[in-house]
Amino acid sequence: MLQPPTHGGNLRQAAQQYQIPFENWIDLSTGINPHAWKIPKIPDYVWQRLPEEQDGLLEAAQQYYATDTILAVAGSQAAIQTLPACREPSRVGIISPAYAEYAYWWQQMGHEVIAIPRQHIERYLPDLDVLIVINPNNPDAFCYSCETLLQWHQQLSARGGWLIVDEAFMDSTPENSLIPYVNQTSKLIILRSLGKFFGLAGIRLGFVISHPALLEQIQQKLGSWATSHPARWIGKHALCDQTWQNKTRQKLKQSARQLQQLVSCLDNHNVTATSLFAYLPFEYAQALQDYLAKQSIWIRIFEQPQAIRIGLPRSQKEYDLLGSLLERFSA
């Protein structure tokens, strides 16, 4: 039996291991915006009534994502677990390193899964039925152009194949999204989430954007009330708040540049970043995680290749502390 993947945001485990109270930590192990969209008071009826389809969420999502073919799901994870059941056994390529849940769920449903290094995609593509791309990629922040992705999609769709693009970290750069092309072609599947940019991972709300027939198939598998009423209410209001969205995009760009500069003291040439995290292949990843953990800072590390991923600090005080510790470690 396959073992479920482990995840990096295991702060409670770290708190227990290092005997530091949970509330004293600076958690930089995720790629979640530390300055989340502020949730207003939720009306009582939202808690007391079952979710309703005609609540305005779909219209808000259609406007925000500029598409009519969209389905709300309980976070991207719901789509990740459901999509493998929507195809016959297939040969599935996942550009790696990648979010581990993809390989796990496609294998669970009997598909052949191949982890493909980015530089070898063209070699494997002719033999694939499905290609999964995270764009920008988690964890290494690599971003693929729309032109490249559409070329891959053309090859796949010509033989009935799918291109799945996870755009969980795309909200800061919507101009790079592949969503505008969904209405022009079938067998293109885009996943989006309110967890990262909006900082609302806890409400478990995301979207699948694709051909209507596939969205209906997913919805049937998920069943009734797949998204909670509070999540839908919060999501609708967050998606409509254009003022917050525009300000946040500018703020995140500035914060990301500052973080990237701090991490560059470890290696000035190989740091890559999205607006929400910085990534660096680093042979002393385990030692750095342990060093920072003893100072109540938790970061994410990877084994293959050895690397670190550091999310955005919440305040200038946290930036200053992180910067001084990284410089001390690299000295």
Concise description?
This protein has 331 residues and is α/β, with parallel strands linked by helices.
Secondary-structure element pattern, one letter each: HEHHEHEHEHEHEEEHHHEEHEEEH
What does the overall shape look like? Answer: globular
CATH architecture of the largest domain: 3-Layer(aba) Sandwich
> Would you count the extended β strands for me?
13
Strand content: 15-25%
**Strand order, sheet with most strands:** 2-8-7-6-5-3-4
Percent in helix: 25-40%
The main sheet comes to: 7 strands, mixed
Average pLDDT over all residues: 95
Q: Quaternary state, please? A: single chain
What does the model show?
With 331 residues, the protein is an alpha/beta fold. It folds into two domains: 11-37 and 243-330, Aspartate Aminotransferase, domain 1 (Alpha-Beta Complex); 44-240, Aspartate Aminotransferase, domain 2 (3-Layer(aba) Sandwich). 37% of the residues lie in helices and 17% in strands. It has twelve helices and 13 strands. The chain has helices spanning 11-18, 44-48, 57-65, 76-82, 101-108, 121-124, 146-157, 212-222, 229-240, 242-263, 285-293, 316-330; strands spanning 26-27, 70-73, 91-96, 112-117, 130-134, 162-166, 188-193, 206-209, 272-273, 277-281, 297-298, 300-303, 306-311. The strands form three sheets. The chain has a seven-stranded mixed sheet, with helices on both faces. Strands 9-10-13-12 form a four-stranded antiparallel sheet, with helices on one face. Strand 3 (91-96), helix 5 (101-108) and strand 4 form a beta-alpha-beta unit. The longest helix has 22 residues, at 242-263.
